[in-house]
Amino acid sequence: MEIGRVVGVYGRNIVKISVPDALLPQVARPGVYVKMYGADRSTVLYGMVVGFNMLDELYRRARIIEELEGYEEFRPARNEMTVHISGYLSGEKVSKGVPILPKPGERVYLVSKEELQKIFNRGDVAIGVLSTCPEVEIKIDVNGMCTRHTAILAMTGAGKSNTVAVIIASLLKYFRRPRIIIIDTHSEYIPLARISDNVRVLAPKGKVADLIKAQYQVDPIPLEVPLWLLGVEEIYNILGLDPRATKQRLYLRQALKALRVERFKGEGYDLTADDPVHFTLEELRTAVIDVSGSSSSRIRDRSAEDLCLKIEDLSEERELYFMTRPEYLEQRFSEYIKDGDEVTASFQVYGDFARSLLDPGLNIMGLGGLSSEVQASIVSALLRALWRIAVEQRFRGERIATLVVLEEAHIYAPMTWSPSKQIVEKIAKEGRKFGVSLLVVSQRPRELSQTLLAQCGNLVALRTVNPSDQEHILRSMEDVTRDTVESLPGLQTGEALVSGPMLPLPALVKIFSFREVYNEELGGKDVNYREVWSSEELKELSIPTPPRHAIKVEDTKQKSLLDFN
After folding, report:
1. Is residue 380 classed as helix, strand or coil in its secondary structure?
2. Cβ 203 vs Cβ 366: under 8 Å
3. At CB < 8 A and 24+ separation, what contacts does 49-52 make?
4. Comparing C-alpha atoms, which of 85, 99, 83, 117 is closest to residue 42?
5. Contacts of 549 (CB under 8 A, 6+ apart)
6. Which positions ≥6 away from 269 have C-beta within 8 Å?
7. Distance of alpha carbon 363 from alpha carbon 262, whole angstroms
8. Which residues of 389-402 are buried (b: 16+ CB within 10 A; e: fewer)?
9. Strand 2-10 and strand 14-19: pairing?
10. Which of 210, 348, 508, 548 is spaced 20 to 30 A from 78 at the CA atom?
11. Beta bridge partners of 125
């Protein structure tokens, strides 16, 4: 159906079209698709409406009465729509790009429902429907999503978590053996474990695991990340060593070098201070004292004394026993060392730790309740282990094909510093070659690393109101236009602008509701104050209980992470 004509062409892909009043209700909406011929009259171009204006020439021109005489069909009012051309017909399918522009005066047509279904039905998994035509289901191309990384950006409450859950649930349903890891910063994706048998939830023992079990009735597998698996920067972060604490950082680095490098120099190993070599907290404390020139009976240096106190405090923090007093991985280390030396046994445990994260299916790392510093150090260690395996597999001619979902990605790859920032950016820049893909999720785009965002070829943008967030998205992502970011505040909850290689054309998508499709409620939803405050029953507030001694390993029948491999 013809809807108007081209009245202006601007830059590389923007055209203005004039539309009669009678057709405005059908086409004057962002997200409507139109098509037209290019200047060669053979190339069919596709575009999406991104804005519209109403002009009245009576107020724009002088001596208008004289000019109007003799032109009975001339209408002084004109409806103009802005169209972003983003693709063209190449054979039987639509390809991205603008090989040629139309000429002013070219006729413009509305793209039919049947044609839209043909365009958007080529993908693998459905995530929603076209906002302007609900009969058209939107299917994303999984290769396009994973090989170019994806960013899901939104303000709080716009539907970000629902979008992630719908995408992951669809992948679990469609593929027999996907390999997906969710870094679940707030433990809100645990309900995914109730919709598929191909899901494992991992969480540190203690309050974190207890909260997950109480809230979701899911019994998590114990997650252990021994401190000795962490690199130097990650341990700095765990101990809260500010960059200005130069002396303490120097002592710690020298101590780790002594424990990981100097100790094994004569055995033919070429190690660094970041390599995962086993040590205990007491050994670390002793090494700090030694490198400071003190003795265990008398610590002369104040910086060394403060650092030793921090190490002692760390050993006593119950919520971090999964790092400072790991049971199962320590047991595994004791078994390995019977048949080899400390370094070999350490790397065998490290291999077990890394491989356990890569079991086919969905692995949810429930980290809710831990501090952001601890989360960043854990994620850094997890991703470095994953990266080592990915590189090894690549050298053997294989790729592990893993998708990592980084929830609250601004914690792990901020504009400033974080121990995990370097490895996240490395995966963003090089992961495609080694089969590691990122799904970056954030409600604070302005705080995200520009390097990370620039590597995300796909964008799923839900409602974003903050001008700083919009500008950061515009500066960081190559295919995003100003018209795109200026349309984000007008999106409804659950509505997203999706663009990139995972779709043949940019689309305004109404994402499926995870709750309606799977009859499960995600964590992290808003509290219903009206309902709580209107309730006659006042629930008794729980009082913290005193901690008890941990159950010994030999007395418990609870399975470990490694027992599930």
Report:
1. helix
2. yes
3. 49/81, 49/82, 49/83, 50/82, 50/83, 50/84, 50/481, 50/483, 50/484, 50/487, 51/81, 51/82, 51/483, 51/487, 52/19, 52/28, 52/79, 52/80, 52/81, 52/82
4. 99
5. none
6. 343
7. 37
8. bbeebeeeeeebbb
9. antiparallel
10. 508
11. 140
Instruction: Give the count of beta carbons closer than 10 Å to the beta carbon of residue 118.
Output: 14
Tens of pLDDT, residue by residue over 415-430, are 999 999 999 999 999 9
The pair of structure tokens assigned to 364 is 């949810």
Q: 430: part of which helix (H) or strand (E)?
A: helix 421-434
Are β-strands 221-222 and 199-203 bridged in parallel, bridged antiparallel, or unpaired? parallel
- What is the torsion angle, in degrees rounded to the nearest 10, for the CA atoms of residue 507, residue 511, residue 517 and residue 519? 170
Q: Is 279 helix (H, G, I), strand (E, B) or coil?
A: coil
Q: Please, are residues 405 and 183 in contact by the beta-carbon 8 Å criterion?
A: yes
State what percent of residues in the chain have pLDDT above 90: 76
pLDDT per position as a tens digit, 364-409: 999 999 999 999 999 999 999 999 999 999 999 988 999 999 999 9
Three-state DSSP class for 459?
strand
The predicted structure's pLDDT at residue 555 = 44
Give the DSSP per-residue string, 160-186. HHHHHHHHHHHHHHH-SS-EEEEEETT
Q: What is the pLDDT of residues 200-234, one digit of tens each?
A: 999 999 999 999 999 999 999 999 999 999 999 99
What are the boundaries of each domain within the chain?
2-111, 137-226+326-531, 229-318
Give residue-wise pLDDT tens across range 504-556: 999 999 999 999 999 999 987 778 888 878 876 766 666 666 665 544 444 44
Q: Which fold has domain 137-226+326-531?
A: Rossmann fold (3.40.50)
User: Could you tell me the two tokens for 481?
Assistant: 């236009």
Work out the angle at residue 236's Cα, subtended by the Cα atoms of residues 230 and 238, and round it to the nearest 5 degrees.
70
Burial of 124 (0-12, 13-18, 19+ CB in 10 A): middle
Query: What CA–CA distance (Å, rounded) separates 469 from 452?
Result: 15
Q: What is the pLDDT of residue 531?
A: 83
Nearest to 166 by CA among 200, 140, 134, 131: 140
- In this structure, the number of other CB atoms found within 10 A of the CB of residue 303 comes to 17
